[in-house]
Please model this.
Amino acid sequence: MKFLLGVVLFCVVLSISWPLALLLLVLLPVIFLLSIPFVLLGITLEAVFALIRALLFLPARLLGARV
Model:
């Protein structure tokens, strides 16, 4: 579904301005490559917060609370 939306969006931009569509075609892989470290940082931070949450709720879980 996301791919189809991208193709339709590209066709709309192509029909409006073909130089802009070609620029997007060239720049999108570069933008994707630049965003990879931020995605990895987000995954890492999510894991760290899950670990902290698990450690904070550990005493309650040991005492039998359903969290």
